[in-house]
Amino acid sequence: MSVFSPVAQRGTTLIEVLIAMIVLAIGLLGMALLQVTSVQSNHSAYYRSQVTLLASDMADRMRANRTEALNDAYKFDFPVSSSDHSVSGTQAQKDIAQWLNTLALTLPEGTGQVEKADRLVTISVRWNDSRGRIKATDGTDSGPEIFVYRTEI
């Protein structure tokens, strides 16, 4: 017969409680990181929705002024993002200035360009989506986002 009799364990030890708290903390940290990623993705999706509407807006402006659009009055390259474009001149110049001002006010560093080949129009919108973009695993940033919208006028 043994001199020592087994003692029944009652309750939990401090080590077990600390391990449970660490496991819980890691799980909560993971949930917080998922929430941050979700907010970033929603922010980026909001910008993409705005870009889609704005590109469609320029296409509609060109269709409304089809004669000038077919004569290349709406062709321009990416200017510097600014909301100070003068809204004056021909209808095409007014449309371009209003559209570029709206891009600059709606999107971070937002600007655009319009190219035309015969009746096919390519409307491109460029903006800085660094706040909403999910970072690459190697930490690199792919630069500005560019949305391309092609239509026929």
Structure description:
This protein has 153 residues and is α+β, with helices and mostly antiparallel strands. It has helices at residues 14-64, 66-70, 91-106, and strands spanning 111-117, 120-127, 145-152. Strands 1-2-3 form a three-stranded antiparallel beta sheet. Helix 1 packs antiparallel against helix 3 (91-106). The longest helix is centred in the N-terminal third of the chain and has 51 residues, at 14-64. The model has no long low-confidence stretch (mean pLDDT 90).
In short:
By secondary structure, the chain is of the alpha+beta class.
* Largest sheet strand order: 1-2-3
Q: Helical content, roughly?
A: 40-55%
The helix/strand order is HHHEEE
Largest sheet: number of strands, sense, barrel closure: 3 strands, antiparallel
What is the CA–CA distance across the termini? 100 Å
Poorly predicted runs are none
Overall geometry comes to rod-shaped
Structural class by SSE content? alpha+beta
The DSSP helix count reads 3
Strand share of the residues? 15-25%
Overall pLDDT, averaged? 90
Number of strands: 3
What's the alpha carbon Rg, rounded to whole Å? 28 Å
Question: Descriptors for this entry?
Answer:
153 residues, alpha+beta, 3-stranded antiparallel sheet
What is the strand and helix layout of this fold?
Elements: H1 14-64, H2 66-70, H3 91-106, E1 111-117, E2 120-127, E3 145-152
Antiparallel strand pairs: 1-2, 2-3
Helix pairs in contact: 1-3
